[in-house]
Each structure stands twice: as C-alpha cells, then as structure tokens.
Amino acid sequence: MSEQLVALFQNIGLAEQKAKETAKNKNLAPTLEKAIHSAGYDTNPAEKSTGALVYALASTITPTALPHLDYLAKAIRDSRLTTSDQVSAAIKFVQDKKEIDEAKFNEECGVGVVVTKEEVNAAVDAYTETVKDKLVKDRYKFFGLFFAGAKNLPSLKWANGGDIKEAVDAKMLAVLGPKDERDVVVKKKKEPKVVEAKEETKVADMFFEGELSKLHVPGGNPQVKPELMVEHLKATGGKYVTRFPPEPNGFLHIGHAKAININFGLAKAHNGICNLRFDDTNPEAEEERYFTSIIEIVKWLGFTPSEITYSSTHFQHLYELAIELIKKDKAYICHCTGEQIQMHRGGPERGPRTACEHRGRPISESLELFEKMKNGGFEEGQAILRMKMDLENGNPQFWDLVAYRVLKTAHHRTGSEWIIYPTYDYTHCLVDSFENITHSLCTVEFMQSRASYYWLCDALEVYKPVQWEYGRLNVANTILSKRKIAELVNKKHVFDWDDPRLYTLPAIRRRGVPPQAINKFVHTLGVTKSDTVIEVSKLDSFIREYLDETAPRLMGVFNPIKVTLENLPEGHLEMLNVQNKPRDPSMGEHSIPFTRQVWIDGSDFREQDDEDFFRLAPGKTVGLLNVSCPITCTKVIKDESGKVVELIARYENAPGFKKPKTYIQWVAESPKHNSPVRLDEVRLFDRLFHHANPQDKKEVPGGYLSDVNVDSLSIEKGALVEIGLWDIMDRWAKSSETKTDYEAMRFQLTRIGYFCVDKEADLGDFKKPNASIKDTVKNIVLNRTVSLQVNSSLKNRA
C-alpha cells in the first residue's frame, strides 16, 4: 500500500482510514485508481458526491463492462451520470458491447433526465391508490414495501431517492396520521423459547436502501441464450430465489450470521424463497455433526429454508456436464502436481504463465482418461480434470481451474458410489444454476471468482445467475479460521468448538446470546462492499440491550457472607412479591422469603471502611433490595484463619429511620423454601486474546497461540441465588420444544450481569409428568452472557 495511492483515493472524498482499507484491496484498488485517472481527479479533487459515484463505479463494475471503464468515468466527470442508479444502469448497458451508441446510452441511463419533486409527489399519489388497502391495513409496517414499490415505478426510475422517501413519508402521514399505539410492536407474552421459535425476523431497510437496493430484479440478468431466461422465469414465476450455501466441514461463526440474514432476508423482503444448501463436495472434511449443527443454527436464528438441498444430489448431472465440457474442448485431463501447476502459473516470482504439456491433448484422450478416473484407474493426485480457460487473463481465476479430482473417501450421502469429486469452483455456479438462484450472494474474497463463475455457465450454455459480493463481518480479539480454532481445541486452550469464549455460532448460543440480538446487530451494520471488523463491545451492547428488555431479574451473591439480623426473632418469615423486572408489571412477579438470616455478596462488605465505599462495613447502614427497612452492621465474626464468616446486623425497623443511599442484593436462608439455590459453578468469560488481531505478526510476533489470555475464564464456586430461579426453569421446561436448549434460561443477576444455564448442568429427570426442576436437579452451572454496563466511577456506589 503506497502513500500516493491513499492520497489519490482521498481525492474522491474517502476518509483516510477508508482510503487505506481500499488501497489494501487487491481487487478494487487497481480499478478505482484507473477510474480516478480517467475522470481527471488525480490532479483536481472531486466533489464528495461525485467521488462517491466514481467509487461506486469501480466497486460494482462487471468484468464484461470493464473495457468501458474510461468512458463511464468520464461520463461521471461530465455530470452525465449523477446518481448511483444511473451508474448501475450504465454498467449494465455497456456489458458485452464493443462499441457504445451514445444516443442509446443516454436514453437507457437517463442522461439529462430531471424528475422534479412535483412529479415525484404526483407519481407517489397515483401509486398510493393502487396499494391503499394494504397501506391502511399494515400501516407504518408497510413502509419498506411501499418505498420499494414507489422507487421501482418507471416514471421515477431516475428520480432522487431522497425525494421519493420524502414523498412516501408525507403520503403515509396524510393517509394514516401520526403513529399511534397500532404502530407499536407489542411484546407477546410468550415464554422465551416459544418466542424464539415462532417470532419472525423483521424486514430491515437494508434490503430497500444502500447496496442491496441496487440488485437486479429477477429476469434482469442477460444470458448467453435468451431462451435460458424464459425457462428460468417459467420455473420461478419471477420470484427472488437465494440460498445460504455452507460447506459442512466446520461450525458456523459470527460472519455466517451476516450471510444468513442477507440471503434469507433478501428473499423474504421480496416475497421470494431461500434454500439452505450444503456444498458437500469434500468428503474428507465433512461430518454429520456439522450438518446437524448448521440446520439447528439457521432455525435458532429464526429462519426456515424453503428447502434443504445438497450439491451431492447433482453428482451425476455434474459429471455429465464435465463430459460435455471436454467435448467442447473446454476441459482436459492433467497429470501435473500442485508444484508444477504453480510454476506454470508463473511461480513465486510471478513470471510468465505457460500451458502444461497436457493442455493440448486430444478431446478423445481426455474423455477416455476421465472415464478411467471415474472407474478407479488413478490414485489420488495422479490425474485431475482442469477447465481450459484463458492463461493470458490477469485474473488467476482463469488459469485453468481444477474441476475434478480423485478422492478415495466415502461420502456421507453417496457412500462409495463416487471416487472423483467436483471442486467448489466447478460445482458452485452450476448448482446455483440448477436451483434457479436469482442472486448468488457471497463475500468479497470471491469477487475474482465472478468472472470464472460466468465463464463456466456460458461455456455449458446453462442458466447464469448473478453473483454479487458484500463485505465480510469479523470481530476483534478472536479468530474465525476453522484450522486455528481446531488447534485451540486440540491444545486445550478452549473446551470445544462451542466454548463461549469463541465466536462460532454454537459458542455464542451456549453463552446465552439471544438470536434476536445477533440479527439486530447484523441489520444495524447494513451491507457494504468493505469488510467490517467490529469491537466486541459493540456486539455486547446489542446483547445487553435485548436482555435488558426481556430477561427477568434475580438476586444472587458470589463469595457469600452470612448476615444474622439480631433483633428479628427466630423463625421470622416474610414472603415478598418481587417484580420479574422493576417498573414493568407485564413481566410478572415471583415470591421470595425474607428471614432472620440472609446472605450478601462478599464484595458488598469491607471490614476497613473508606469514604469511597458505599456498601456495608462495621457501624454502617445499607438497604436490602425489595426489603422495607435497611440493616446496620454491629459485629464481625471470623474463623481461626481470620476470614470473615458471619456478620451480625440490626434490622432498622424503628419508626423514622433515614432511607439509605445504597441498596445491595441478598438471598434468604430458608430450608423449607429450598432457599438459597446453591450453584455448583458460575463461569465468567473474558476476551480470549489480548490483541484485537491476534494474527497480526507485527503485533503478535509469537503467533496467535502466544496471545491467548490465560485469564479469559474464571470460575466462581459456591454462589447462591434466590428461589425465583426455579420459576424460570419450570417455565422453560414447559415451553421448550427440545428440552436441551438450556441457554434459553436467561436472566439478570442484579448488579452482577446477565447469565444463562450451561449445557453441562444436570437437571435430572425433569421431563416426567408434574416434575419440578427444583426436585430433580443435581447440579447447576451458569455462564455469564454479558456483564452489566456500569460507569467505572459509580462501581463503589452500586
């Protein structure tokens, strides 16, 4: 990355950090540099809005439109293209054209077309009449579809998007009036698991604004043969068809949550369908547990696939097309080793590329050898089928990619039927074609693959979906690499792939993170072409926000200290009704005992008081949460080692006692109420790595394993919780479909944090009729989901 390139990118209005990120992007940087030079902004900086169009051009231009980059950049400079929609139309128009008819270009791209606000208002008024019934019925929930429909009106094709939104907002206000109670999303009084299973993921504006709003409508992508599109539209009915296509060779991670939301969300936003498709073409790495986990995670996030499909279903068809590719002289059998292929591609020095000796072999010979591969005539590595592409092309994805290889490994679905397996580069686009996918969405590292994706579909003359790339989602202070997570597991740095310190989705789920919080987090980030690295604290804030609204409150104490209230009689008992969430009666309430003996948190007492400590100390008074009167410490009892084991306190129930400044949580000792609930283990998790990027060799020269935070897990033993925990557990037992999703038992321990039950807890035989978990439980293990957000200056005042 050169300073000159960063400065050049700043000339079109990119912020310094964005310019640096773009300069590192090997796919985008050369195209953007050329566009800037073509537009003349290398010497004269562009207006920010114009610079944004240049950036949009460079980041979205297709390979077949790339020869006209200079023309399009100058059209932006000359103010012929003034909106992102015009740039998108211009890219589409010049695709596959040798020469540009300027008059047709102007017509197709809306050059010189001005749509006034008055015309926008008139068009929106007319459109409103066609959807008025739906608008009145759904009210403000209809905004997304209303806005998208207005934006797609032919008369508003070149209108300013802001003007359209303004007109839509004004029309909705005129028809519906201000928002009222009908437009408030009412919380359904369902148990947590029921909500998770039934609640539908809301459609967010990201599907109608920004990058995703620029995607083509079904039928808008040209084909090598027009009849292919006719057949496609007949099969789909013009619907959006997407797919989430994981490889079943590992567990999904936080980045996949973005992919799931985008693929399922785009289809839902346009009343289309989304498949869950397993790209299962590598039997050496695939395991049944990965298939099961992926299906569970997609459901857990709130999405239901239209269909669960497998690439392996198409092995025979893929094989037949490979034969057809050979017959077209677009594939050949090669015997080169991996090292030899690398050298033919220019080697480490990136020298000239050369064809291997097998590239020119006769078609009949390749057909014969391919059959021999299929029938076991070659060992692994002795023969491969390569696609005959374009070695002179600067894109490595054209350097004769491998289509088939020999793998003498049984497949989880097809058994030993096949010993040759298609590669991802060969399979992915073809199965997209078979499934009539309209929008093949993937992350930006596949941008170069778009050209080879299209090449193969066109070479075989099959329907060609559109590939579109978006930026990856990464989280700081962690790693997502399957190989490196496996090493962490094998070297016992973490329990397993679902260790709550990791950011695999099973790990996040086990930590008690609600799926709704993840979905909202992803939707709030939106969709861009740039990779995103998010601080853990930002994700935690979404988790905390959701749990604050939904998690019931309990009192619990760590390192408990017994407190005896000397002026209350033996056997004193008050049953207190406590709201599950303060100031929110809708969440219900539960009862807890208050007795002569209670337990407090060890951190809430100091034998040596100081002016910055506002909790209990000898001679000092504090309030007990939910109790009418405060207590004053009158005596400290220690064991032989000097450890504080009990406090004697006075219950200040005399008339006129001053209200205390500070209240602390407590748990009563009451055996007949099974109080307190004794926890076997509470696990408190911290960041797994010290550095934001543990794979940065400059910051972490010893490698990522040397950066592991050995204090990332601390375990509290002997913690106590109030009996309201039994209510939470019993409600879960009644509502849970699987009876295994322990993490759905979520709650806040007041003044401590948000917690859930870990899967290693032993709840006993609670499934039998009329059983209560308090009678069957054998041990309880909790995980801290996220801490409370407390101002550091107030910690001692809490």
TrEMBL record:
EC number: 6.1.1.18
Highest rank taxon of the organism: Eukaryota
Name of this protein: glutamine--tRNA ligase
Domain tRNA synthetases class I (E and Q) anti-codon binding residue range list: 664-758
UniProt cross-references to PROSITE patterns, sorted A to Z: AA_TRNA_LIGASE_I
NCBIfam families assigned to the protein according to its UniProt record, in alphabetical order: glnS
Catalytic activity: tRNA(Gln) + L-glutamine + ATP = L-glutaminyl-tRNA(Gln) + AMP + diphosphate
UniProt family annotation: Belongs to the class-I aminoacyl-tRNA synthetase family.
Domain spans labelled Glutamyl/glutaminyl-tRNA synthetase class Ib catalytic: 241-548
Domain Glutamyl/glutaminyl-tRNA synthetase class Ib anti-codon binding, chain residue ranges per copy: 551-652
All residue ranges annotated as the Glutaminyl-tRNA synthetase class Ib non-specific RNA-binding domain in the record: 3-161, 164-232
Keywords, comma-separated and alphabetical: Aminoacyl-tRNA synthetase, ATP-binding, Ligase, Nucleotide-binding, Protein biosynthesis
InterPro entries reported in the protein's UniProt record: aa-tRNA-synth_I_CS, Gln-tRNA-synth, Gln-tRNA-synth_Ib_RNA-bd_2, Gln-tRNA-synth_Ib_RNA-bd_N, Gln-tRNA-synth_Ib_RNA-bd_N_1, Gln-tRNA-synth_Ib_RNA-bd_N_2, Gln/Glu-tRNA_Ligase, Glu/Gln-tRNA-synth
Pfam family, one: tRNA-synt_1c_C2
Spans through the membrane: none
